[in-house]
What we know:
Blueprint: E1 2-5, E2 8-11, H1 15-24, E3 30-34, H2 42-45, E4 50-51, H3 60-70, H4 77-97, E5 103-104, E6 107-108, E7 110-111, E8 121-122, H5 129-142, E9 147-151, E10 153-161, E11 164-172, E12 177-182, E13 185-188, H6 209-217, E14 221-222, E15 227-234, E16 242-243, H7 246-250, E17 254-256, H8 276-289, E18 295-298, H9 304-310, H10 312-320, E19 330-339, E20 342-344, E21 356-358, E22 363-364, H11 377-393, H12 415-432, E23 436-437, H13 439-455, H14 463-484, E24 493-494, E25 507-510, E26 517-519
Parallel strand pairs: 1-12, 2-3, 2-13, 3-9, 13-21, 20-22, 23-24
Antiparallel strand pairs: 4-8, 5-6, 7-8, 10-11, 11-12, 14-20, 14-25, 15-16, 15-19, 17-18, 18-19, 25-26
Helix pairs in contact: 1-5, 1-11, 3-4, 4-11, 6-14, 12-13, 12-14, 13-14
Amino acid sequence: MQVLEFDTVVIGSGLAGLSAAYHSSMFGSVAIVTKSQLDTSNSYYAQGGIAAAIAPDDSPEQHAHDTLVTGRGICDHDAVNVLVNEGKERVLELVKMGMKFDKEGDDFVLGLEGGHTKRRILHAGGDATGKELTCFKLDLVKKQKNIEAFEFVAAIKLLHENNCMFGVQAYDFKSNQNIIFKTKAVILATGGLSRVFSRSTNPHTATGDGIAMAYEAGARLADLEFIQFHPSALFIPNKEAYLISEAVRGEGAWLLNNKGERFMKDIHPLAELAPRDVVAYSIFRQIQKSDQKHIFLSLKHLDKEKIKQRFKNIDRHLKEYGFDLTKDLLPIAPAAHYMVGGIRTNLDAETNISGLFVCGEVASTGVMGANRLASNSLLECLVFGKRASEKAAKLKTCSCSFDEPEPIVLNTNNEQLFLKYQNEMASLMSSNLGIVRNKEDLETALSHFTAINEKFKNTENEYNLIKIKNTANICRLITKAALVREESRGGHIREDFQKENPDFKTHIIQQKNEKIQFESIRK
């Protein structure tokens, strides 16, 4: 078993991981561990952009207001203030370093998305902001000589003792060997978990690994019931969901039901630009009323050349499916998109375990509330990735001694078993924990996930069986939180509790071997 030592180990290579690694390299040696390639992440595929109050008629205060309104009373105010103020600084810092956001003349082209009252969405390459921004950060990372990348290496266990983190056990798919990364600080930036649903906009890597690892280590989890479904994912039977950016609606696209009616005008004053939870739920209801499994997105009334230039990547991708972005009615339906809750942190991205930091989608920093404001996610990566690195650098090396753990093995005979359980659980998550939920369906799902978790709970050393256990545990935790929250708020809608309940204006906290707790919103 190979043992390597670094000052900081970053797990994940999305924008949060790359930001954390880059800033950590200013203080010492850094390992980036990713189970795929460095450029495979939700960040890479983000189309919309990054929100920042840089316009003359905008302000961090207005950005904070929109974030809090969209978050439905569950945002921590102090975290939101950090996001909008330092976020503006981080974006301008990137510009100074050479990041090229789209401009017209000397002015940035600012987009508008759901929940925003101002045009404040910077984008790059039209609709390729995630790719452009991630590649820009990746180039910076590659130039840092004290950062070493480990691709196709899966982090599997966090090594800790007496509430003190001292390393990570990982499996190298190329050499089929175990690696122990000894370190004083682990920064988890493993992304989301939307691939536990059968219909998702996420890459296959978004399976909640970081949540499972942190939970097993004793970290506190918050607000897992809030799952954001993206309203406009292309719907083609037996095909993967393809995200059509909310920025398309920001430029004036309409949502039409199967009668050809524009229905959002009667539901919300912002119409198609209402917060995502409102739009996704409204689409769900329209689908229920029809004999189709989708509604339509229409850009037929917009300037064709402007649309093709602004959304050239989406346009090109849709042509592969036989659609013309400017002429055709596009069949769309919501798809699981973003984990709003996550591993609970303080303002420095620090968890309750000394030496364990979390940033990006896997974190619950307090900024997202019950429903993420569009394009705040990339901003959160920049802000809290930097904060995590700075706090981690101040830690002293842990003096823990440890016995070499049992090695992880990969038995390919178990791959089909994993796929069987994965598909079964994904189907149940989509049917029973989709946009609308109820007690009976949740209890059925919980019983199923608990049974799988019990069956594999003693699995410690075979990769595929560990993945079954982890997926069952993640689904179980989401379901438990959804059962406890007897109200409808943001990305959690109960048809048996259809209104917000002020008693649930609180975080729901889960921790291994502990009862569910409630934590007040930080003001």
